[in-house]
Amino acid sequence: MGSGKSTIGKLLAGNLDYGFIDLDDYIASSEKMEISDIFESKGELYFRKKEFEYLNEILNTKDNFVLSTGGGTPCYGENMNAILKATSNVFYLKVSIAGLINRLISEKEHRPLISNIPNEKLPEFIGKHLFERGYFYSQANHSLVCDENSKEELVLKIESLLV
């Protein structure tokens, strides 16, 4: 959350003349419900099952696209294995805790996961999530440190690493 997956993904897709797919948007559209409503009414287990189903649908039926997953997607079930099996172009956009806080603090009210967390507790919350997810994120083919780069620089860097 806040690493720039969707922003970078859209720019990259535009440069490559590919389609852009945001997995959460795809799920919400397919389920005809917002992600937060799915979690609230059907629970996380239902969401994670659907996430895996739709992820595989995209990976197995779509061509020439850039996919932005949710930050938790690689950490559940066989999601990361499915992604790595489908492509060698898996990127982890790595942002420091301080960088994430700077990006997220102004949009907290639009981020259900952090909207009720006091600002002074954000570093601990974000750090804990990064630590828990680090194993999965480290499996990406490429890890890009994003704190010091503009979005345009990151897109060019990703383009240079595509195989």
Can you walk me through this structure?
The chain has 163 residues and is mainly alpha-helical. It has one domain: 3-Layer(aba) Sandwich (Rossmann fold), CATH 3.40.50. The protein has helices spanning 5-16, 23-31, 35-61, 79-86, 97-104, 122-137, 151-161; strands at 19-22, 65-68, 91-94, 142-145. Helix 3 runs parallel beside helix 4 and helix 5 (97-104) packs across helix 6. It is globular and about 40 Å long. It starts with a helix and ends with a helix.
Global morphology: globular
**Residue share in helices?**
55-70%
| CATH superfamily placement | P-loop containing nucleotide triphosphate hydrolases
Largest sheet: 2 strands, parallel
**Tally of individual domains:** 1
CATH topology: Rossmann fold
Care to count the β-strands?
Answer: 4
The rounded Rg comes to 16 Å
Query: Which spans have pLDDT < 50 for at least 5 consecutive residues?
Result: none
Seen as an oligomer or otherwise, the chain set is single chain
CATH class: Alpha Beta
Content-based structural category? mainly alpha
SSE topology string: HEHHEHEHHEH
Within the largest sheet, what's the order of strands? Answer: 1-2
Which CATH architecture?
3-Layer(aba) Sandwich
Question: For the terminal residues, how far apart are their CA atoms?
Answer: 26 Å
Attribute tags:
163 residues, mainly alpha, Rossmann fold, two-stranded parallel sheet, 7 helices, 10% strand, globular
